[in-house]
Amino acid sequence: MTKQFHDNVLSDDALDQLFHEARSYNGWLDKPVSDEQIRAIYELMKMGPTSANMQPARIVWAKSAEAKQKLSDLASEGNKTKIETAPVVAIIGYDIDFHEHLPWLFPHTDAKSWFEGDEAGREQGAFRNSSLQGAYLMFAARALGLDCGPMSGFDNAAVDKAFFADQPRVRSNFICGIGYGDASTIFDRSPRPDFDRFNTIA
Amino acid sequence: MTKQFHDNVLSDDALDQLFHEARSYNGWLDKPVSDEQIRAIYELMKMGPTSANMQPARIVWAKSAEAKQKLSDLASEGNKTKIETAPVVAIIGYDIDFHEHLPWLFPHTDAKSWFEGDEAGREQGAFRNSSLQGAYLMFAARALGLDCGPMSGFDNAAVDKAFFADQPRVRSNFICGIGYGDASTIFDRSPRPDFDRFNTIA
């Protein structure tokens, strides 16, 4: 039986850690992130919902100096140092042929057949759902006491070739530095919209 | 000064509430969600990171029976009852012309100019970042003791016309039921991949 938490609001400290005080960092403390931490992030993020449990995200966690340099060489000027100095940078890609895995990921019906022959639909679904998974990754990292620095300024086609050459149906979505943020590298938080600016209750 | 939470792992209960025990519900208890709760979800979700703080999500929270019926009429067969019975359904759209707001959302530089004349790039950025924001919405709802049921099976163009007619540059992304999940309406959790299946540490 699923445990439910109806009307249980997380503690102020937990809300601060996940939302109010969490920031996107531009620089990092000189403190490594272990393989165990990377695996722990994935163990949490994979619990998040995706359409028909498609789980389209394919991730390369660039941790070695060589991998980060290779990624930095393909990134926009403003992202190079962020990449090189992050303890690890997750390259979040998505598999356009995710439907091949649905027989074991969504075993109670023939979901694979819903996606066959519709590559444009799969591309859109994989992009949407791998973006969701990228957000789950960030919340998982934050929940484990780590900080994030997401970035989308890089040459996607070149990154696909450099990091997903063995998975030719995978396309990069965005990348995310993970580590212990250096508070001296961030500015004041950018303004946030009032509810009524971008929301309607109908 | 930003508060940091380095190496502070959230409690097991909080991780259960957000990740391990959270489920996508197909049915709902007969218990309303208030406007105050909807606003509280947005107050949390808007803190999440978007590229250049673009905040492209535009949300219609369908709460009245009329609004839910209108949405249900445009949804796939399997989603109609889920929509009609949910206390509220968030219709998460994205503004292709989000860059018009960057002068106040990202005030320290001329970010608007980065996006001018590149509608395809804006569409991609708005789709990616509104998907991230949809994930933040779900984690915000869960953090407040609510449950979610995300769906993408509906006629996007018709929903745009029905709910964003006054915002012709907004496109629907996905929708999400929010309420108190009825545990009798869900099945066993679908399998989750082992780390080594879809991840590489480089």
Report on the architecture of this protein.
Chains A, B: It comes from Pelagerythrobacter rhizovicinus. Chains A, B: One of its GO terms (molecular function) is oxidoreductase activity. Chains A, B: This is Putative NADH dehydrogenase/NAD(P)H nitroreductase ETX26_02950. The structure is a homodimer of 202-residue chains. In chain A, helix 3 (65-72) packs antiparallel against helix 4 (77-85). Chain A is 41% helix and 16% strand. Chain A is built from 9 helices and 5 strands; from the N terminus they run H-H-E-H-H-E-H-H-H-E-H-E-H-E. Chain A has 202 residues and is of the alpha+beta class. Chain A has one domain (22-187): NADH Oxidase (3-Layer(aba) Sandwich). Chain A has a 4-stranded antiparallel sheet with strand order 1-2-4-3. Strand 1 (57-62) of chain A pairs parallel with strand 5 of chain B, so a sheet runs across the interface.
Concise account of the structure shown:
The structure is a homodimer of 202-residue chains. The first copy, chain A, is built from nine helices and five strands, in the order ααβααβαααβαβαβ.
Radius of gyration of chain A: 18 Å
What would you say the CATH architecture of chain A is?
Answer: 3-Layer(aba) Sandwich
Termini Cα gap of chain A: 34 Å
Q: Main beta sheet of chain A, described?
A: 4 strands, antiparallel
Beta-strand proportion of chain A? 15-25%
Count the beta strands of chain A: 5
**Approximately how much helix is present in the residues of chain A?**
40-55%
- Describe the strand arrangement of the main beta sheet of chain A, using strand numbers: 1-2-4-3
